[in-house]
Amino acid sequence: MITNSVKDDIKSAMKSGDTFKRDTLRMLSSAFKQVEVDKRVEIDDKIACEIIQSEIKKRNDSATQYKAANRDELAQKELKEIEILSSYLPKQLNESELEAEISAVIKSLNANSLKDLGEVIKVSREKIGAKSDGKSISQMAKKLLS
């Protein structure tokens, strides 16, 4: 399980003295705990992947804002955190694999215009899961439907 892997990696980061990785993983662990408490659910790998994707999205947004403000050192910190968090997600689909998956969904739904975009994205996200982020799925669906 991802949560157990994160806990083990926190311990190994503490032993090796890697404070950056330790702090990043502690933040992720606290995000897991927060969801467990707020939603009163047991964290499984599906929920863990959603949380990790959410944390990555937050860091991408922050890195973009830092770059716009010419704060490259802070942007680099966010990007290093993304790198650590991404290692817990399943292998991400490349563009051609993503296109093939979404094309299959479009065919199965008989979607043929941008009016069907919402349904295509919804079914694609369920099918693809954590193998791609929502932004990529949305962009590819728009491209294929237009």
Automatic annotation (TrEMBL):
<protein>
    <submittedName>
        <fullName>GatB/YqeY domain-containing protein</fullName>
    </submittedName>
</protein>
<dbReference type="InterPro" id="IPR042184">
    <property type="entry name" value="YqeY/Aim41_N"/>
</dbReference>
<dbReference type="InterPro" id="IPR003789">
    <property type="entry name" value="Asn/Gln_tRNA_amidoTrase-B-like"/>
</dbReference>
<dbReference type="InterPro" id="IPR019004">
    <property type="entry name" value="YqeY/Aim41"/>
</dbReference>
<dbReference type="Pfam" id="PF09424">
    <property type="entry name" value="YqeY"/>
</dbReference>
<dbReference type="InterPro" id="IPR023168">
    <property type="entry name" value="GatB_Yqey_C_2"/>
</dbReference>
<dbReference type="GO" id="GO:0016884">
    <property type="term" value="F:carbon-nitrogen ligase activity, with glutamine as amido-N-donor"/>
</dbReference>
